[in-house]
Design goal:
Chains A, B, C: It holds the Pfam family Amidohydro_2. 3 copies of one chain form a homotrimer. Helices cover about 50% and strands about 10% of the residues of chain A. The first copy, chain A, has 17 helices and 7 strands. Chain A has a 7-stranded parallel sheet, sandwiched between helices. At the A-C interface, α12, α13, α16 and α17 of A face α3 and α15 of C.
């Protein structure tokens, strides 16, 4: 293939196949405005009195870019958007936006509010595309802990560890990788060494002593889960940086994982750093120096909207191009898949055209790099296709 | 209103009304070059031998943008600038620059070198505009401490706390909010919990034992001041990030306040993060997830000069547009009000035109957002106008 | 001199004399592709399976900008590049690239793999230019320690300290400054106070007890070295920020040195912060507030390639223009000198033209600032020429 003009290049990027290696399902229920506004922010609080979530980068993207997908004028009012949206069947909204993404392969993480959103199979039904599962380690541990706690067993600690091992082995067989939300639960500022049997035993006792639904907030068990995944040579997705108000963002700097990466070189395990904003330059450094570290700037792309161009450009500094991935990190709203894909295409195109114009990169080479980042790096990493 | 062209939009931004929610007074004395150079840098040292403070972003702004206000050619030499400036009465310089700012409302913080600079009333006389006071908490505590220490009282600790309470109540009645310089005095890396009576009592004893002019550098009393303000549902301005060499900048990351924001949700108190550079992206995240957190990039705008465009654009990422404010943080030189306002208008205009051109934002919507950030957000937050 | 057009300005920047105040020597042996790829990355691991180091910003710079220097087409394949390169004598490659840099003066740091690369004298022979030495403090201490350990001496601790003092005094006489890699060896997150005699004595005992080649990883002795240099009013180059995987990047934030800078004001010593990425904004702040702090964004320029423009622009924010320096930090490959110089010229030109166009900076003033940053600041700082 030979691309002869910037227009041809832009056209090619518009239909660039994408591998969305980290996303969640979409809601299948009708949404009213308050629920919709809640889903276009990482905040767990309602919008400040006197303001609306529509007055934000992502709100402007919804009005500007999503409205036309629903047959509305670009930059219609929030009221017009919600009126049209609530008049349509949820499935039709989901289909319209998902079709418009050009995403060919999904890596669906199933550990967050799985009852509210589409499963891998349902997403496959909706899109006709390949959907792979990504298993959330902490969720599996919580489910196993609740099961063991509630059944009559002697030696519950041992039973938990055995059942956890069995369950994880089974789950990863059908998945392309695992995910850890250590950043949310304990932060990343502790030594990620393999726990001793004694440490682990004490931590399990404590975990099983929780009443009601169990919440894993213990760094020892999280280390156990991570080392399970390392020993099994998994691709391990890690939440990094920006997220909701549950996170202590200053404790989510990926550089805090430097020692974990040193310890796991050569294990066969690989790590993908998710989102990373505002630490994406730090992530690029790690992807450069560690052969088993990859990263993306998903989530941040959606939420920085018209500024996603700048964030994507910053992600193209130190990292080898073979270590950068695409994800939408969409959750709930099909608009988020669409915007994630659209803003990614546009921002990547803009950065590469800038390199073409300022540093003479041939357009064919720009396109080769775009294909790597959009699809091929993930396909090679996850060993699919 | 309907804006039909970029020229019309630029024109509208030139006369956008501004609410400068955080600034200090201007000096009223004649300034010679060494004093002037001292006031265009955050350093407490003279310029390095062989260099001049005029060779900096702000120095170039003074020569490029301030010179014409005084009737000089743009980019006249520093010598020409100082010659003209010292030939003019100080009040006339102050009036010329302040008039040219287009600032309609001032929030004047009165706790720093108040004897050298104009008071709220004097600034009102100079400008004819509305001037509100912002009370510096640490300064009030120091004044009360000196008074109590120096008078004959039994039980000085109790007397201090009572007098502090009375004084603060009186001061905030006539102010739109309070300011804390915790970042300067103790850094932000400690838990911002409410102090116990016992902790507080010990800290007060120590404070009152200081000789000479009292300097509050105790985190316990600062926490007491902050919780006073939270309990009174105040707007609390916080120094964040960049400042002079008195600050440990790495201990001024606003993310260190995450727990304080969690604890004070729903209290009625609101926080405005000032300056924030180079942590303005972090500030934008906090403004997104916490309904009572606002921020600005004042100070940094003046001092990054021709690069202020980039800083302002970066401030328009995660934060809802209803949570971003304008301040000049001008101190001493009327040039700093003028440059703060001018660079803010230009940088905001440039960012919004970019969003118009790249992401199709209608110019009317760009203008609506500009009005929010320039004035309306502050008016709503401080409940004035 | 009066520059009348942007073209004239660009032409002047193309031949701007450069003072590369921090670099290493070039290899003199023929290199095969694996060695070459190793030298265009900071990683100590081979490229990830399925990727090549040529698919990176620096790889694209080699193909785009270095290929024509060897008589090849821009963006020839890596295979063509390596074929041509291996067909040429190493000295001829070195000469071609070094001549094309326009570097007039070198500050050559001799402490890293000195046996593999050219010495100051050899670099002078290659280029005909002035080459000054920069002495790596830790290397001198290691050499002295090995010598003292291996000879028959009573009171080895005292002998070590005496010999260290004598050697350092001799070495700095022939050098323009010293370099410390404290960031690599112990991180920057400890108090940089002067060690006590007792602390020092214990640390020396431990150092001399090492077997084989001695590696200095002790913060006490490093503090001793730094205070030696401060007492001798040296220019002290400090590794900051980005480097290879041996570094804990989050412990290399230059802000961690704030107290060291406070303690050494007025000592006559000056500090140059090297590389700094991704903490170059923080470095700019330090260069503003401390009169004896300078910085550069070397290394990051080479490795961010087509994005170096953005990094250079960010380095032109808070710092006075008289405190910014140029370095390539080239090691091993002559391509790295060439790219460092070329990307620096282009990025600086681009930033300054932007300031000309957006903030009316006269082109003569842009050129004056370029000369300062490219050469004059370093000449004044190192007191040469």
């Amino acid at each position: 293939m030979s691309i002869k003009s910037i227009n041809e290049f832009l056209h090619a990027l518009d239909s660039l196949p994408l591998f969305d290696h980290h996303c969640h399902g979409t809601v299948t229920e009708q949404l009213q405005r308050p629920d919709f506004e809640e889903l276009i922010s990482e905040s767990s609080s309602p919008a400040t009195v006197g303001t609306t979530r529509f007055d934000s980068q992502i709100g402007f993207q919804v009005r500007g870019a999503c409205a036309p997908v629903l047959g509305l004028d670009s930059f219609c009012s929030p009221e017009e958007y919600m009126a049209k949206r609530t008049s349509m069947p949820s499935e039709s909204i989901n289909k319209k936006f998902l079709e418009a993404t050009g995403i060919e392969t999904f890596g669906l993480e199933t550990g967050h509010s799985a009852d509210m959103i589409t499963s891998p199979n349902e997403l496959h039904q909706l899109t006709g595309k390949t959907v792979h599962e990504v298993v959330r380690l902490e969720r599996v541990a919580e489910e196993v802990a609740e099961k063991i706690r509630d059944q009559e067993t002697y030696e519950k600690e041992a039973a938990f560890l055995e059942e956890l091992d069995t369950t994880l082995r089974a789950r990863i067989k059908n998945a392309i990788g695992v995910k850890s939300i250590a950043a949310y639960r304990v932060g990343l500022d502790f030594p990620f060494t393999r726990p001793t049997e004694n440490e682990l035993s004490k931590a399990v006792t404590k975990l099983l002593a929780q009443e009601g639904s169990i919440r894993l907030e213990d760094s020892t068990i999280i280390r156990h889960l991570l080392w399970f995944a390392i020993d099994k040579a998994q691709v391990i997705q890690l939440h990094i940086g920006y997220g909701d108000d549950d996170v202590d963002l200053h404790r989510c700097n990926p550089l805090l994982l430097t020692n974990l990466f040193r310890q796991s070189i050569g294990s066969g395990a690989r790590f993908t750093l998710l989102h990373c904003y505002p630490y994406h330059r730090e992530a690029g450094y790690l992807a450069d120096v560690f052969p088993h570290v990859y990263f993306d700037v998903g989530l941040a792309i959606n939420y920085t909207g018209a500024r996603a161009n700048a964030v994507i450009a910053e992600s193209l500094e130190l990292s080898p191009f073979g270590k950068i991935l695409f994800s939408s990190d969409a959750f709930g709203l099909p608009e988020l898949y669409y915007l994630g894909a659209k803003l990614f295409r546009e921002g990547l195109a803009k950065a590469l055209i800038n390199f073409h114009e300022e540093a003479n990169w041939p357009l064919d080479e720009c396109y080769r790099i775009a294909r790597m980042i959009g699809y091929e790096n993930a396909a090679r990493l996850y060993e699919v296709d």
